């Protein structure tokens, strides 16, 4: 039974004089939710077909026409079912995750788009994130030999040098993303970013000349310029 149902039951009991004033005040305050209440039922459920190209790009940072290809590349299933038995379509779950990563975004900001309560959005988003990590984490935790084998590194380095770079042995360029996080209760100084003035985790990657992110390292502190030279 939810807090809302309990509070309605307490109101009914109080009207029927089955509990006293003191009991009602004590119990009504005890069973009040600390989270803000969002009227998710006022919004329609997610329907990608109803979104325009500009809305998709703004909400998901991905072109609408590219979403099916992204879902196929990530091997997104037709349906996601969480441990709490919440169910979402594969594309809906993927879009939830993309929207969540489109900073700045809170779960409450996602209600008008998906028409679901915050706990359900949170559970589905985390479930999709776990699915992608479990199935594709090796691409960012292991050396990608198909992209970074010696013969290709030489091709990348030659392409960079032919564009006017002074170095002849540079095959990629460091790119970084600062991901803000909630202020932790401990070790705050370790994750504080003085440049952005937020608590965050920063991930760095190497982008090769064809635009592909060749390898991901994170958080910062495990990466030096020597990783992109050979």
- Give, in order, the helices and strands: HHHHEEHHHHHHEEEE
Beta-strand level of the residues, as a percent range?
Answer: 5-15%
Low-confidence stretches: 216-230
With helices defined by DSSP (H or I, 4 residues minimum), what is the helix count?
Answer: 10
Q: Give me the Rg, rounded.
A: 24 Å
- Helix proportion: 40-55%
Shape annotation: elongated
Please provide the count of β strands. 6
- Overall pLDDT, averaged? 83
Alpha-beta classification: alpha+beta
Report on the biggest sheet.
4 strands, antiparallel
- Determine the N-to-C terminus distance: 62 Å
Task: Please give the structural blueprint.
Blueprint: H1 3-15, H2 21-30, H3 53-60, H4 67-73, E1 79-81, E2 87-89, H5 90-101, H6 111-114, H7 118-136, H8 138-141, H9 145-148, H10 150-162, E3 173-180, E4 192-193, E5 198-207, E6 213-217
Antiparallel strand pairs: 1-2, 3-5, 4-5, 5-6
Helix pairs in contact: 1-2, 5-7
What does this structure look like?
This protein is α+β, with helices and mostly antiparallel strands. It is built from ten helices and six strands; from the N terminus they run ααααββααααααββββ. Strands 3, 4, 5 and 6 form a four-stranded antiparallel sheet that branches. The protein has a two-stranded antiparallel ribbon with strand order 1-2. Helix 1 packs antiparallel against helix 2 (21-30) and helix 5 (90-101) crosses helix 7 (118-136).
Key attributes of the depicted protein:
230 residues, alpha+beta, 6 strands, disordered C terminus
